[in-house]
Amino acid sequence: MIETRDLWFGYDKMVLKGVNFRAEKGETTILMGRNGVGKTTLLMHLNGLLKPLRGKVLIDGVEVKYDKKSLKEIRKKVAFVFQNPDDQIIAPTVWQEVAFGPANLGAERLDDIVKEALESVGLKGYEKRLCSQLSGGEKKRLSIASVIAMDPDYVIMDEPAAGVDAIGFKSIVEIVRMLKKRGKGLIISTHDFDLARKVGDKFIFMDDGKIVFEGDEPDIALALKLGIRTFSTGKLIVVPHNSEIPKIDADFVAAMGIKAKEKAAMDGIEVDITSAVLERSILRALEGHTVMLICSREMLEVVKREASKFPVNLEIKEIPKVSKVLPIEALGE
Amino acid sequence: MHETLESVQLKSKKVIDGAIKVYLIFLSLPLILIDREAQILSLLMFTSLSVHAAGKHYFRLIKIPIFFLAASTVVILLITDGKEILSLGLLRVTDKSVEVALTTLIRSFATLSALIYLVLTTTLPEIVSAFRFLPFFIRELLLMTYRVIQHLIDDAFRLHMAAEARSGYFGFKRWINTTALLAYSLFLKSLRRAEMFDMAMESRCYSGIYPVQNVKNKGMFVVAVIVTLLVAGYLL
């Protein structure tokens, strides 16, 4: 396990303010947060590239020391993939780039190690190619291959899906899954909710140098509040049936359950969605529309739970004034 | 995007490959320098190999040295003393000047053809790999410098495009301003790059080893033929 305890770091201004972070081996931990909240700074502490001002970093229970020998041991265990592959690629040819780490760790059979690492990221036969001649996606995969070749226990990736196309994205997902299958611990900083959902086991949100959320499922509403990119422009406003219906300029109104339909009828609200309500409401919100979903109070938790699984801006509007509910028979058509 | 020499080197057809190619070129040079027959043979062989390897890129690459070579030959032709064979006003062409100009032209062209074959078919890491007997720090310095040059060229190209897209080179004054700005930005970028370079090496446990790959030798028969012809030319 990689752990930080009360980690503080900064120059003129503090970037990390008492971060307590944990990432398990064999799991993929996703670190999210808007630009400049300290994600990369935190990641750089995890393999000793930065030394904290206060607090400590522990790797498999052992506190990180910053002498040359200890750092070498840490970097053998924890590999770092930079956000910009051009920052990481230090050798002119692909073979040299991948062989660099293992050679410095004293590995033998470099040709086999390089071949295997390149194959695992889909760059088979690229050994003799010059790094400067590779495309952006290929450079990204090369930078991952160059750390895989070192066979670390943990792999840190800073924005691995940034600037890659759909094919590159698919390949990044496959590489992350392959590494997890091999028992590696992965710590991935990303803005990409697609990537986070596809590979993440644990989600951590950062804001203003602190961890503000930790969970097994990402909290989309919090993500939106924190300014994390979710690709969602739609809104799902959920109103319990026994609450005042707010005046909202919604594109669609949905009523879920008999009590909700009664309430809508009583308030003279025209309902657009009456069947498969939750699914269709989420779908409309995903399309970018504003949907007001009136549901029975008993269903509120279910709606919250299901909607939070999708990148929609979920809002609960609850005005605690119990309205008079008419029996359904009184409503007629 | 522009086609770089590196991409030509990678795509070129290699009749000879590996360290043997580098040794062949460097060991042929002394012979080419001293013997007229070896020069002519080398000119024919390496030019053919270069055209076969890189086609039109050979002519593109040789254009600039040929320009200088032609200019120098003309100067030699007109300023060397000897028995006059042609008079052009104040300028004279002599028997000696024709001989010296011809010798210089053939010798330079022959040397050039051998080196151009090397340039068109060999990347710098392959050359460094052939010279693995050199002290470690020289090889490391060569490869790192090469990688940094690759970065600098990429950055310079991007900055140039950005300036060009915003009319940065219209008019002499603007051209000077843009070039100065570009040089300044490139300098700052190179400093940042140096910092990241160091960090990237540190993160992968750099302990003074910069691996170099062995390139398998190929075309031993062709090498044998070339060496035999050059030596025969020299001896006969």
UniProtKB/TrEMBL annotation, chain A:
Q: What's an example GO BP annotation here?
A: cobalt ion transport
Its placement in the membrane is given as: Peripheral membrane protein
**PROSITE patterns given in the database record:** ABC_TRANSPORTER_1, ABC_TRANSPORTER_2
- The species is Geoglobus ahangari
Segments forming domain ABC transporter: 2-233
Q: Can you say where in the cell this protein is located?
A: Cell membrane
Query: Which UniProt keyword terms apply here?
Result: ATP-binding, Cell membrane, Membrane, Nucleotide-binding, Translocase, Transport
Report the GO molecular function annotations.
ATP binding; ATP hydrolysis activity; ATPase-coupled transmembrane transporter activity
Taxonomic classification, please? Archaea, Methanobacteriati, Methanobacteriota, Archaeoglobi, Archaeoglobales
Sum up the protein's function in the record's words.
Probably part of an ABC transporter complex. Responsible for energy coupling to the transport system. Part of an ABC transporter complex. Responsible for energy coupling to the transport system.
Spell out the family assignment given in the record's similarity comment: Belongs to the ABC transporter superfamily.
Q: What is this protein called?
A: ABC transporter ATP-binding protein
Q: Which Pfam families match?
A: ABC_tran
Record GO cellular component, one term:
ATP-binding cassette (ABC) transporter complex
UniProtKB/TrEMBL annotation, chain B:
Gene Ontology terms describing biological process? cobalt ion transport
Q: How does it sit in the membrane?
A: Multi-pass membrane protein
Protein location: Cell membrane
Name the domain of life.
Archaea
Q: What do the Gene Ontology cellular component annotations say?
A: ATP-binding cassette (ABC) transporter complex
**Sorted UniProt keywords:** Cell membrane, Membrane, Transmembrane, Transmembrane helix
- Major localization class: membrane
Metal-binding listed as a keyword = no
TM stretches of this protein? 20-46, 58-80, 219-235
Any Pfam family from its record, for instance, is CbiQ
What NCBIfam families does its record include?
ECF_T_CbiQ
Name of the protein in its database record: Cobalt ECF transporter T component CbiQ
What gene, per UniProt, encodes this protein? cbiQ
